[in-house]
Amino acid sequence: MGSLYSDIPTWLHRIAAGRKLLALAVLGALLFITQSPIVLALAACACAALWFSLGQATTGARRLLVSVLIAALLVAAFHVVMGNYRIAAASTLRLVSASVLGVAFTITTRPADIVDVLEGLLTPLSRFGLHPERLALQIALMLRFTEHFFTQWQKLADAYRLRTGKPGGLRLIAPLAIHMLLATRRVADALWARLGH
Fold first, then answer.
1. Is there a contact between 157 and 167 (Cβ–Cβ < 8 Å)?
2. Cα–Cα–Cα angle for 119, 120, 126, rounded to 5 degrees
3. Under a CB-based contact definition with an 8 Å cutoff, are residues 10 and 63 in contact?
4. For residue 26, with 0-12 CB atoms within 10 Å meaning exposed, 13-18 middle and 19 or more buried, which class applies?
5. Which of 128, 125, 108 shows the shortest CA–CA distance to 61?
6. Mind listing the pLDDT tens digit for each residue in 89-120?
7. What does the radius of gyration of the chain's CA atoms come to, in whole angstroms?
8. How confident is the model over 121-161, as pLDDT tens digits?
């Protein structure tokens, strides 16, 4: 299963996973508090500076970011057609900024470190009879499959472009769904065999 995590060291790799996750939560919340396009434009500029500061570590995630930019432009186009220019600008800048923050966190944080942070955060739930390690594993698997979703999408798009010389677009949804179902079945079988129940 592919991963967006990059082994190329950056300044963001040196920051603890818990601090990065906290910063991501706070900054992500701040993006949704303001509606000002000017403030969101400044935030987008700051996120762009963060992205470029990571250098070659972003190589594996660049296509993912291009996909996000295309999606953001489609959202903007929809609002422009509806005559909501302010909403178009705010939505696009907010989506791009939040995506850059999330991808920067993903490519600079080991999946195992994310699980450790989640287990620590969920530990108080053990007083209510819940199992923090299981919840952390479920959340980590969800995040992992999100990465796998984009990685698989890129592979299918590359294969389609090599065969036809054209982008795959919506034609890739059906084969992507089949790949994802097969992948989740393999993971479920592996967990079943590992845990024994």
1. yes
2. 75
3. no
4. exposed
5. 108
6. 988 899 899 889 988 988 899 888 888 888 88
7. 19
8. 888 888 888 777 777 777 777 766 766 677 777 778 888 88
